[in-house]
Amino acid sequence: MKKLEAFLEWGGIPKDIVCLVISGAALLLSIGHISPLPFDMAWIAIILCGVPIILEAVIGLVTAFDIKADVLVSIALIASVIIGQDFAAGEVAFIMQLGALLEDLTVARARAGIEKLVHLTPRTARRISGETEEIIDARDVRVGDILRVNPGEAVPVDGEILWGSTSINQAVMTGESLPVDKNPGDEVSSGTVNQFGSFDMKATRVGEDSSIQRMIRLVQSADAGKARIVGIADRWATWIVVIALTSAVFTGLITGEIIRAVTILVVFCPCALVLATPTAIMAAIGNATKHGFLVREGDALERLAGVSKMTFDKTGTLTYGQPKVIAAKCVDKNFTDDEMYAIGAALESRSEHPLGKAVTGCYKAEKGAALLEVKAFEMIPGRGVKGIVDGHKVLAGNLEMLEENHISMDALESCQAYMDQGCTMIYMAVDGKYSGFLALADTVRTEAGEMIQKIKHIGVTPVLLTGDHEKAACHIAGQVHIDEVHYECRPQDKLEWIRQYQEKDQQVCMIGDGINDAPALKKAYVGIAMGGVGSDIAVDAADIALVDDEIRQLPHLLALSRRMMVTIKCNLTFSMTLNFIAIILAMTGILNPVVGALVHNAGSVLVIINSSLLLTWKKAGVTAKRGA
């Protein structure tokens, strides 16, 4: 058997495809009564395509009394061979294996997400003992150990900062687009990345209790809970087998002609029924691909057609995930708003902080002017920056920085409106006096509002699940017309919300882009990841990836999935109707096994043609032009 499999794995081509090619050629020779071998060439198809079907049917019956469509196919194959109808047996076996191959191609899944999460787990830690610093395996860290984390390093375990101020990139856990300032007493999570200052921390949760390990377990448990949908033919297999056998037995007994009984078994083989679903799915996948979707799970579109809620992550999904200066306000009569903006942009040009880079980038894009000269620049981790710009002593940072430098804050009312929108604020002081602020915010994708309205029109309720705080979440939700909002969600919180919805029979489609979305993408009935800006782990956890991040195409995908289900139902109705007509003709003796197989397989061809119409399908008012 191993030698046969090695022979069939020719040139790296899967043996199933090789078997089908050889079998198809053999059947063509058989129908032309050409045989270079001392037996009918149809036997090649029977052996290569039929024997595996029979073996699988027998194993399923013996080990678990599992009646599937291949049970009836096996009976028909054996009966056809017994009465000498070799071509009919080979033809049915070929068609069934072709359907099985199409189904296998549509249900192929990749499982690299968990391994990539494991690779994110920090391998080493710096343990401090008195004046001694030693590098140890992160698995050897114990609760209470004092650890040091230098700039650019990942936090090895969960803990509390004892000394030092810094900014932490928490995207792996919360999905927040901006680093979060951390000071003594603040908690830090394993897997997050220290951006700037060195700090010492006390380990509070280690090993399997750490945040990154809990994330891995969430993804594993969510994946295990999602069962693949069983094919229609297998779901109805028991009834098909019973009806077929009963019809064949009674026809044989009444007419006394065994050939009529075998013909019934042949025409009752669920060829078209088996092809009805995978051909429609493959055509729909082809359509989805043209609109920027990579469908990674074969039955994802089948599941998508049944969703009633679509949950969205905020950062990187509904927004671009990049901070932008939306306001530069000056409260000092000695400067204008533009002059304050220029001073802030010049000072931040020396900063490595993402906010500083955003300020400088926005200023250059908007004003196109040269930056002012900066001297005596200094960066204070967890606080901000300071220096001399155009002869003025300038501070730019958070409220704590200004308070520590004894800067009086008398005009904060002017920035309250921006704070209510969830903006990130950079407060500025010039020559020892509070002078104004820069307000930064993540910007909503231009197509997000229209996309949400179209989803509502289709009949699906949008929901926002985000790790951001309340004001930022509600502000973005208001801009895109989402009424249901859940904010400050950790990965386990998103998972819990999806679980609650689905327990109420509200099937959920989750749209996300970050590592923190991976458990929710796995748990959801359907997971769609932003393939362009999204992490590889989010893409691996999802059923579908939106390759170019054009969320305007989501309504088309949703409408396509529902159209696909209509096509599948039409295919099933047609194939079952054809089966019953063929059975009546077989009972009356009009059809023999060979003609019955040909008629039946003609029905399979019509099913494939009907499914192929999905390749170019689009719904008016829903489909958007790519790149529009």
Summarize the structure in short.
The chain has 628 residues and is α+β, with helices and mostly antiparallel strands.
- Note the total helix count: 25
Largest sheet: 7 strands, mixed
User: In angstroms, what is the radius of gyration?
Assistant: 32 Å
Task: Count every beta strand, where a strand is a DSSP E run of 2 or more residues.
Answer: 22
User: Could you report the average pLDDT, rounded to the nearest whole number?
Assistant: 79
Q: Hey, roughly how much beta strand do the residues contain? A: 15-25%
The helix/strand class is: alpha+beta
The poorly predicted ranges are 1-12, 106-117, 221-230
Give the CA-CA distance, first to last residue: 55 Å
In order across it, which strands form the biggest sheet? Answer: 10-22-21-20-11-18-19
Share of helix, binned: 40-55%
Overall shape: it is elongated
Q: In words, what does this structure look like?
A:
It is built from 25 helices and 22 strands. With 628 residues, the protein is an alpha+beta fold. A 7-stranded mixed β-sheet has the order 10-22-21-20-11-18-19, with helices on both faces. The protein has a 6-stranded antiparallel β-sheet with strand order 2-1-3-9-4-7, with no helix packed on it. The protein has a 6-stranded antiparallel β-sheet with strand order 12-17-16-15-14-13, sandwiched between helices.
